[in-house]
Each structure stands twice: as C-alpha cells, then as structure tokens.
Amino acid sequence: MSKRHFGWMIPVFLLAASAMSIAADGDALELTLRSRTETAEGAGRYHTVTHDETWEPEQTAIIVCDVWDLHHCLNAVRRAEEFAPRLNELLKDARERGVTIIHAPSDCMDAYADHPARKRAMNVPLVADLPEDIELWCSRIPAEEAAVYPIDQSDGGEDDDPEEHARWAAKLESLGRNPNAPWKAQSILIEIDAERDFISDKGDEVWSILASRGIDNVILSGVHTNMCVLGRPFGLRQMAKNGKNVVLLRDMTDTMYNPERWPYVSHFTGTDLIIEHIEKFVCPTITSDQIIGGEAFRFENDKRPHLVVVVAEDEYKTEESLPDFARDYLGKGFRVSFVFGNEEERNDIPGLEVLDDADAMLISVRRRVLPHEQMAHIRQFIEAGKPVIGIRTASHAFVLRNESPPEGYADWPGWDPQIFGGNYTNHYGNDLTATIRRDGDHPILTGVPDEEFEAGGSLYKVAPLEKGTTPIMYGRVEGQPEEPVAWTFHRDDGGRSFYTSLGHVDDFKQAAFLRMLTNGIYWAAGLEIPEEFTVAGTIDDYRRHWMPMEVPGTWEEGSGGVLAGYEGPAWYRCVVRMPKEWHAQADIVAFRFDPPSIGKVYLNGVKLPGCWAGFSEFYATRKLINWGDANLLAVRVERQHDPSRERDRRAEETDDSESSNPQANSELDRLSENEGRSSSNYFALTAGVPQLRIFEYEDLDNPNEPTKSLRLEGTWQFRIGDDPSFATLPLPARFAASTDVVFEPAAEE
Q1: pTM as predicted
Q2: What is the pLDDT of residues 170-189, one digit of tens each?
Q3: Before 131, cis peptide (omega within 30)?
Q4: Distance between CA atoms of residues 246 and 248, nearest Å
Q5: What are phi and psi of 535, to 5 degrees?
Q6: Per the CATH hierarchy, to which homologous superfamily does domain 541-743 belong?
Q7: Per-residue CA distances from 269 to 274, 304, 382, 742 (Å)
Q8: Domain made up of 306-524: CATH architecture
Q9: Which residue from 290, 239, 229, 295 is spatially nearest to 53, judged by alpha carbons?
Q10: What is the pLDDT of residues 570-610, one digit of tens each?
Q11: E strand or H helix at 118, and its extent?
C-alpha cells in the first residue's frame, strides 16, 4: 500500500513547508455566494445566481466535518488526502483573521478526551434555548420535500475497485481497525490549534459554541457531502433550518457515490449533482479561492471538460429535453452547467459569465438579442477557438428577422455561416414528414443505427453549406431535394463546431438522434467517442437499482410505461422517522396497507408478523425502532399472470422481531390470529395510502383510533427482482437513504 494513503501518519511538521497566505487579524471575508433560483415558480428549471457578502471573522465559524484519519473506502481516503492540505491552508488563514474553527470528526471524541480544544468545547455552557432536535441527525428540511434526490447512494457509495477494496479492508484489519468504520481521529493533515480551536461532534455543543460567540455565519467543509455534511447534528440542514447564514465550501468536499449506480455518471458529476441540490434547496456555496486566493480546488482525476448548455427558445421544449439528455448521456464525460433564458424578459440570458470557465458550449437559442455584456461572454468564448455545438434553432440564435436590435443590445447577423457553416433560409411545412438517413462513416456516426427514421419536426432548408463543412446526415420530404440535417464545421478561428437541425422534442425519443448528438458533443470537445453508453430510463434501471415510485400508484404509471407487463417479484421501500417523544406511547407500532394482499414487510431489516382483515397490518415493538432517527421500511410484493392463484401469506417465525416485553409479545400474538391466506397475488400499493399507526395497550380495543399516525403517501423507492439484501441497507438508513423517500410528522406535531 502506498504511503500516500496513510495521511494520518504524515508528520505535522511537513505541512508547515507549504506556502501559506495568512491574512491579518480581523480581515473581513469577501465572499461570492452561489445558489439556484427557479426561472419561474414551478418551472423545475433554475438560474444559477451569485451575490456578494462581507462576513466579519469574529461572527464566522468554519466546521470541519468528518475528515477522518481513515475510511472504509480507499478512494475516499485518496480524495480526502488530496484536498486536505489546501483545506488546512484555508483554516490557518481564517484562524489568523479571527474565524472560529470547530473540528467535528464524528465518533472520535475518545481520542481527544484530554485535548485542550475538546475540553474548551465541553466547558461552553449549553444555551437554554437550543433548537429542537439539534442533537439529532437531520434527514431532510422542508425545502427539500418536493425535490427529487439526484443520485442513488443506497449501496453506501463505495467506488473502489473490488480487488483493491478487499486488500484495503485486509490492511485496515491488520492495523487493528474495523474495516467498516476504521476512523479513530481527524486526519493529521488538518492541524488543530490547541489554544484557539474547538473539537466536538455534538449538535448541542456546537450550537452553544456558536451562540456563546455571537456567530451567525457558518462555513461547512469536509466529507461526505451527501451524507455527513448535510445530515450531521452540526451539518448544513440543521444550520439552515435553525437560521444560520450557512454555506458549503464546495471545492473542499467529496461525496460517497458509486458511478455504477443511477444516474450512471462519473463520481465527480455525482458530487456536482449533490452540490446543485444543496444550492437549490438547502444553502449557498462558496469556494476556497475566495478566502486564500489562487484557483478553486479540483481533483487531479477530474478530467471532465466543462460543457455549458445555453437554452432560450420557446418552440421545441429543449428546456425539458436537454437537461434529461445531459443527465443520461453526458454525466460520465462532462461537467455540465445550464444557462436558461429569462422567462419574463426575452432578450436576457442571465448567468452567461459561466462561459468564462467553459471548455465547450451547446446552444439551443432562437432569435434573441442580448445586452452587450452578455454577448461579450459568447464572443470571447468563440474567439478563443473553443468548440460549439448547436441544435435546431441555434442556426438563427442571435439573428432577427429584418429588424435591428434595441439600443444597448447586440445581434450577430453572420452567426450561422460563421459559427456552423450553415445557410438556414426557412423550413418545409410542418405537415410534411421528413425521413432521416445517415451518410458516410464519420466517427460521430459510431453506434448510430443504419435504419432511417422520421424527424419530429419540419425539415430545415440549409443547402448549400459553407466550405469546411462535412455533412453526416440528410433528410428528405416527398418531392423535394435532400437537405443536410447534421454536419461538422472547422471555423476560421480554429474551433470545431457540430450542428444538427434536428432537436424537436420527439427527436429525443429516437435512438439514432440521441447517439448522434452525444457523439457530436464528444467529437467537438476533442474526446474519444465511447463505443457504448449505459443509459438511464430502461427496465434495466429497475433491476440494477432503486428508482422513484409514487405511492399509491401503479407500476405502469410510476415508470412512465417502462414496467408495463412486468410480472414477478418487486420491492418498495421508504424511510420513516419516528420522533423520540412517541416512544412512551408506542406499545405497538403498526404498518397498515390497503388492499389486504401483501407479501412481506421488513423494518430495519427485520421481518414483521402481520394479519389480514380487510387490510394488511404488520407489527413491530419498541426495540425495533430507531427513535428520533431514520427507519427503513421495505415491502416485498409480487405480480403473477394468474390473479386468482392463492399464495401463502402466513408470516414466518420471527424470533428476532419479538420484544423482550412479555405483554407486548402477547398482544402481537393476539393481533396475528387472523393471519392467513390471500386469494390475490398482486399488490402494488395502488389503492389506499399506507399508514404508520402507534398504539398504547388501551387503544387496542378500538384499533381505528391510534394514539399517533402518519400517512406514507408520496415517493417511495422501487426495484424489481428478488434478493434478501433488498430488505436492508449497507449503512444505517440515515446515511444511505435519499431525502425524497423520508416520511416524518409535521413539525407542529
């Protein structure tokens, strides 16, 4: 094993040799906060916006979350060691300015029992008005309730090579570490100032430190963004929910995400997607260069070119089709940013300054003129000889029809021939169906089917093309000459361009178009075109991993038709958070389903006994519940061809689910007396709303009036196939579950 993977063994004095940018005590932090705001209410599309703030150091804290000495994922260790020296440099700079530094290596407080920074934290009196549940993990805040979580992290996010991971686990064991949780302290790459810093992994302690110092501004850094940085008692959600001005240091973090899981993007794109989720629903972000100068940190293995997609057209719904396309086809090879037109002001595309950091640009714009400062970003990008990809109306993106731009705005009359080598003049009638064929053996045609297909929209009139173009696809309508519909172009400025007049929303349903567009983007960016792509959106997704499914609802509706006709076993699961104050009233915990046909139900991996009496109800006792925390509820169902075939529903013996309370055992026995067989063998959570019901013993004579209840209506996760591991998670539910499948009582309850 390479020595670089033992950052915890590197002497601290070696760190002092790195060049430091130490600010003077009291120097304010001049920050640019980045967040996302919807282009219009309910649009589901977001502008990336920034605003500047000045934070006074004495009112600011940096919390370093779980940058442990070791981790069970070797690649996670490597990435943490890569950014830790720069994070340490930033902490030194901030400390000298007067910023409070709180080190929070969870589960490692024993290592610091005698450390002055730990004692300093423990000596801070707990404030009287602590926020509710500040000592608990936070799985979701209200702003996230309507969000679709962007990645599947339910496998724990391991992205190691299996053989290398096995060797790493053996190495950890030889060191006397638990291979599943080997951390014992914070990484030695992060220095702790014994005279000024604090050490704590407790939410109430951290909150009290902030309150005692009058700190309202909080910067979070560390690992892992999608788990600990978001969810810990001192994490982003708790800080945002309870009113702190909190930001994520987005270049000093990492995720636990396995690229073999949905949405099949690179590990670094997985991190980007989580950061985007945070900027939309939790808090803004900043980068390290805003504090210590230089450039924002980027992992050495993150080789993805930055593709900026500019969308501002009203005809072909590319504001919907292109984000889905980018997620499914570009996430492995590119870092993708979207810029959308202002929905209230036609000639405004906010956020074009992101082109200053871009390597390639995809344009889907129709007849817009822009303020001079916005057009300058586009001109500067193209004059640098960088690649441009255009679809459909991009041929007349910045060209008006016989009009001049208003004062203060710029058009680009020669855009089409100069940028794409095109010659758009008009299009054939919308009632004329165009047939599309490929031509030649250009690399962009790799994997593109030979079969002809029908275009979704009208055929553009573009011939003749400029010198330097190479057509690779043609279209025709009856009685008219063929027209090029896709071609490459080498521009006078030395840059590559690829253009296709296809791009109607229906074209995105054609495999040939999707592959051709993907290849064209790779070609323009100078990347090798992959031979194959793993694409989300097929029935294989439901076999490989967990997908969102609305409950109640049918499989066909929930999958957009993908699961139409599927027969066989399937699983649902969600996460239920039961408040700790419910514990005293929970003599019996019941999960009720309607209709009364169901297979097996598991809570935190334990199979529950149940009964059927006009509904299905399954029972758990207190000891199975993680009170005040996340609980995994998993349901196995099955659909077979013959709906009248009986299938045994009798619960198996579940000794491990029984309570140590004899009275509770007796009640479970009584409630299970009606357990028997069901004549139906199709259960898909299609009708009634599942419910969590809490009973005290005296409630059992009137089971329709539980002490507490919670409707489990909304998004669950769903997977077809059958595997006993589907009833469990490799990590506690708080880590592995996504926010969109969490159910919990409303705050007022």
Answers
A1: 0.87
A2: 999 999 999 999 999 999 99
A3: no
A4: 7
A5: -115, 135
A6: Galactose-binding domain-like (2.60.120.260)
A7: 9, 9, 25, 24
A8: 3-Layer(aba) Sandwich (3.40)
A9: 290
A10: 999 999 999 988 988 888 888 988 765 667 899 999 999 98
A11: helix 116-122
